Amino acid sequence: MADATMSSPVASLGAGAAPARPAVQIVPVAGLPIVGAVLGFLVISIAGNWLWALDFFHVVGGGLWTGIDLFVGFVIGPILGRLSIQARMEFSARFMPKMLLIMPTLVTMTLASGWQLARHLNDLSVAYPKHWWLVASFAVVGVMAVVAIGILEPANLAVLFEMQKPHPNGQRIGRLMRRFVYAAGITGAMQVATLIIMTRITTW
């Protein structure tokens, strides 16, 4: 009888306790000064024709963009698919706001610096058949940029806004996260093609 009396409050507390919702900040304000500094230095480098800085932005931005896409698509993706809905929400609350700043910044610095480098090094005026490599590069990078800005970022924002609701839909968050991960995997695979093209161009 005593055991039953003591166990009933515990059982009722366990049954009625809802998992704590993770705090969500759509835009991580602490990261905005870093993004502003990076983009500001990029603009100064383009205006001043600083080839070393443009090369730095292109190599670092492209390397990080490639690494993040491959890591998210082929490492985080399979792990995320095996997590519970609550665990996905916890992960999304911490991961997605950071990606909201990181990916547009990397895409911008890589593409802007890469175009300026190609222009200054006269790579845009090479004759065919070498010019086909540039055409292939523009096509692949253009598709990746569209995927990053047109699919990854809307999915990212949709997850964050869903988690701001009083009763977020965990299944919808899971679907949006899968869309995000699949898109990152596609761009990651395309990054391999970009690496092949870029290494070919640099060995002309």
What's the average pLDDT? 81
Largest sheet: none
Number of helices: 6
Question: What is the helix/strand order?
Answer: HHHHHH
Low-confidence stretches: 1-18
Global structural class: mainly alpha
Query: From the alpha-carbon coordinates, what is the Rg to the nearest angstrom?
Result: 23 Å
Percent of residues in helices comes to: over 70%
Tally of discrete structural domains: 1
User: What proportion of the residues form beta strands (DSSP E)?
Assistant: under 5%
Report the end-to-end length measured between terminal Cα atoms.
Answer: 86 Å
Please report the total strand number as a whole number.
Answer: 0
**What does the oligomeric state look like here?**
single chain
Characterize the overall form.
Answer: globular
Q: Please, could you describe this protein's structure?
A:
- The structure is a single chain.
- By secondary structure, this protein is mainly α.
- It has one domain.
- It has helices spanning 2-16, 32-48, 51-81, 85-120, 131-164, 170-202.
- Helix 4 (85-120) packs antiparallel against helix 5 (131-164).
- The longest helix is centred in the middle third of the chain and has 36 residues, at 85-120.
